[in-house]
Amino acid sequence: MATEFRIPIDRSATVVRRKPSLDFSVTGLVYCSMMMFMGLAAINSQANLLFGVFGLMIGILVISGVVSRLVLRKLAIRRTLPENAEVGVTVTFVYQFENRKRYWPSVSVTIAELDGAEGFTKQPQSYMLHAAAQHTASVPTELLPKRRGLHELDRYQVSTSFPFGFIKRAIERAQKDSLVIFPPLGTVDRRLMQMCKSAENTGSMMRPKHGGMDEFYGVKEYRRGENPRFIYWRRSTRAGALVSKEMTQVSPPRLVLVVDTHLKDETAESFSDVERTIAMAASVASHAIKEGLLVGLVVWSNEWIIVPPDRGKRHRVDLLAVLARLPKNTAHPMASLLPQAQKVIEDATTGVVFTSGTLAQSLGDRVRSTLVVVSSRSPQHRAWFGFDKDIDFQTCMPADQQPKLKH
Amino acid sequence: MYNIRQFKPTLYLLVTMGICGYAMAAESPGFFIFPTLLILLNAWLVKTGRFAPMPRWITNAGTLLCLLWATSQFVGARQNTILVLGQFMIVLQLVKLYEQRANRDYAQLLILSLLLMVAASINTASLLFGILLIAYLFLSLYCCLLFHLKVDTEHARSAMALPESLRTELTLRQDQRNLTRSMRRLTVLVSFASIASAIAVFLFFPRGMGAGLLGPLQLQPSQALTGFSDQVSFQRIAAISQNNQLVAYVQVWKDDKLVQGTQTLLLRGITFDIYNGNDQEVGQWQWSRSKMLSQMTDQVTRTTPTSAWESSSYRPGENVWKQHIVLRPTGTPALFAIAGAYSLSSSSELSIRQLKADEILQSGEPLNSQIEYTVLSRGYLANRLTPSDAHAFWQRLQEMQFREGGGYSPDYGSDGRGKYRRYSQIDPAIAAYALRPDVGGPLAVKRDKKAEVTDDDEEIAKKIEKHLQTQFTYTLDLTDSKRLAGQDPMVWFLSDQGHRGHCEYFAGAMTLMCQSLGMQARLVAGFKCDEYNEYSKQYQVKQSHAHAWVEVLTNRGWLTFDPTSGRLTPPPNAIAGAWQKVKHLFNYLEFAWANNVVAYDNDNRENLVANLNQQLTHSAIQSHNLFTSIRDWLHLGSEVAISQKIMTIFMALLVLVILGGVLMFVYEKWRLRRRAARIGLAALPPSDQIRLARQLGFYDDLVQLLERHQIVRPSHLTPQEFSDSLSYLPSETFQTIGRLTAIYYRIRYGRQELSSPRQRQLGNVILRLQNFMQSDSGHISS
């Protein structure tokens, strides 16, 4: 009985094409054949005009090689990357082609990345139509990242087949660059955010502190340069010196994201769940910080990473960068994660646990704890997040963590 | 992204030019008009967006049908292979145009167009086609460049990571600053290199080897044959006269003085002395040559560029007519020349012979390629036969004109051989016509028919010539002539119903009339030309100049008579009108093209190589001689003392100059490096330092000027900040410093370059500033 044999295809790999440094194209081979035919016709018929045409074709072939070399000479290329990118969101690379030649332009040049291409859906390539002599051409190139992590770009290949496409010439250069691609960030349901904010039950959620503009907090000595509106005139007359009111500011809620990246098995589904977990955590971190919450992080990343809650754009980038570079975790399950989390989950701090499994809590634990548990396997929890439908969680981990996928 | 909009119009133009070239080569306007209309229609459909590619099955079926038709044409009708191929390629191109979908179709169109031009190149060699070919090649280069850009940009677009709908306009835009200028430069470079290579291959590629390599498949170009042939028939003359195709270019000198159109040329080609009459065995109503004419020849001689043929018939003191003739392929062995040719040399190897009886020149084989030769002629015919040979010739000719049998019975009587009838079949009516008083006159009547030559022969011939010139009408159109079937055309010509015809009628009638009177006469076919081209200094002999006249043997030798009358030819030295001049110019260009390009052969190539070799050798020898003479001069004996001193001084000066140059160079470099350090360029690479130091010299001068006025730039301030801090200076000074600082920035960071005039201008500005500051120095220092 014949058995169907299928070659497993890794559909996750980004195809990287590397061109030879000198190559004849199909057009070039056809042209050479035509040139030979022309030579033969000229010799056979002894028609002088055909000798001229034959010579012309030889000249064109020779000059093709010369011009293609000339185009790539004295062409400096600089790659400009953004600070970071996000899976599923278009990122723009800018390639600057500086033509240092005194007289000759560079036309029809393609640049293709050889390293770091696995982070994107297609091999990063850019095409420069034209850079005049002693001019610089900037070519923005839009790419779609598909894998999170730190991607090192180094070698790239500059190639051209100008002027006639007969001869393809390519040279390899290097410029080290790196790009952090964050996990996919989706929309977060307001109910989840509300849950995260209201989970703190010590009653001290709205801890007032001075320095704000909210309610009366106290008085203090007026210093030169402060807002004169807050001068407490009545008290000042009594005190004999200028005093000003001190107002409260609302202390925002504090969240600590506890991310469980433990892989129970090495099936594609498990990988996908872990990736979804990370994406969920990243989405919450991003949204929470944008809403002004203080967010911290506890996760395993070759060691225990404990980031105290903080806020601000820089902190957001830091958190997302940590989440982006999470390695495969097969040794540190939830049981070892929670004790680490307890070190940062203090009073007035809500812990949000992201896991691909379940967290069994007793009733007492649920009453006492401030943990919010979000499971990537739970359809209800999944519904809280809105990710782009084109994002494939089976392929958005770093390439070295990619399991083999089959059709 | 760059929209290669010029590509399609260029491609359409290219295809049209290819078809035009082919139509030119095939000399058929139909090949141009119909396909061009289809191309224009296609272009309109594409432009207006109405175009839809033909379904594949239709194009395939059409191609197949066309292939079958081409095969049938080639196999069945045996048409010219190249013509059939060309027609096939035209149809293919039209099919491709109406089927165009992808870049592959455009590439195929380009290839087909090029092949069509190649086929046309094999088939024609005209100047117009050559000009079109050159323009076509330039355009095809440009079209190929555009095509490549189009393919590359489309490929780049398809390789983009994002789908079409998600791409932003920003990434599709490309830098097109100076793109036109760049493309122009590159096109010039590519064109120059290609043309240089084409010329090099054209000039130096060996000719001759490998010709006919493909044997039966060889695509021979069609021969450009004239209408001249070994046989003269009356109908063919009319066709030749209406054809203006060039046959030859002739330069004439009379006694080393160039003849500039003041003489009418009569170039003898071939002679005929036998009229076949009604004899259908040998050809009815045709002139031919007796065997004796062809038998009495000189030995065949092979002329080369270094050895000429010469006969001994020239006598010193006679006029020398030198003709340099470029003769196009005629398909006959006739070598044309003025009467009395006694020497011939050619630019290539040629076997020739001269026939003694009529002094015509012939080559060993029919001429199927262009040749160039120089002939020396006396201008008149000498009787090269000895008296005994001439008598024997005349006797044999008389005998040949008779043979046993019935037919006419001329009044020759019997000499023991029986009754004879004229072989040449001269109709008695012609003989009777010649004896008329207004034709031959009484001299003709009393002439002894058995006499070889009489004193009255010349007079008789003149009378006949004059009669024909005055009483007969020249015409080419004999379609309305009512000639009875089987009637001798010569009889008809002389009858009352005739009295009109072209030159062969005139010449034939006069020859027969002379022969009927017993005179030796022959019909000569050749060219009569008076069209002179002042640009090329040559006579342009065309097919329409083909002519026939008569030579009659008199006591003064063979004399030339031209009985043709009424031909409307302009006087030889008529001033050409403007249009005629343009035509002459074009003919000259055509001649130059044909001679230098089309007819370029192995001999030309070897000559060129030899010339180059000679020039290089000559240059080398000259250089060597110069060097030797200098060396000898240095080694001279008695002038050693003086020349040694001079040499010493000279050498010393030379050494000083060189040393000075080196020192200058080193000093200059040091100076520029110092200036670079002062300006703040020390961190740059040395080459940039030197370059910028040269450019920013004016700023260094400015800074030094300010320092002289105790205004020193602190090191922590940038030039702009320093300039802004000088606001306490007079406004003019402050503004000038500000402007100079702006220029500094443009050069330093903006990569601008100062031209020499601009540098001088800035120098003047600083000088003026210096003067102003000196005059205002009290205010500044406070």
Structure description:
The complex is a heterodimer of chains A (407) and B (782). Chain A has 407 residues and is an alpha+beta fold. Helix content of chain A is 28%, strand content 32%. In chain A, strands 1, 3, 5, 6, 8 and 9 form a 6-stranded mixed sheet that branches. In chain A, helix 1 packs antiparallel against helix 2 and helix 5 runs antiparallel to helix 6. The longest helix of chain A has 25 residues. Chain B is α+β, with helices and mostly antiparallel strands. Chain B contains 25 helices and 22 strands. In chain B, strands 1, 2, 7, 8, 10, 13, 19 and 20 form an 8-stranded antiparallel sheet that branches. In chain B, helix 1 runs parallel beside helix 5, helix 5 runs antiparallel to helix 6 and helix 12 packs across helix 16. Chain B starts with 6 loop residues before the first helix and ends with a helix.
List keywords for this structure.
heterodimer, A: 407 residues, alpha+beta, 3 domains, six-stranded mixed beta sheet, 28% helix, 32% strand, disordered N terminus, B: 782 residues, 4 domains, eight-stranded antiparallel beta sheet, four-stranded antiparallel beta sheet, elongated, disordered C terminus
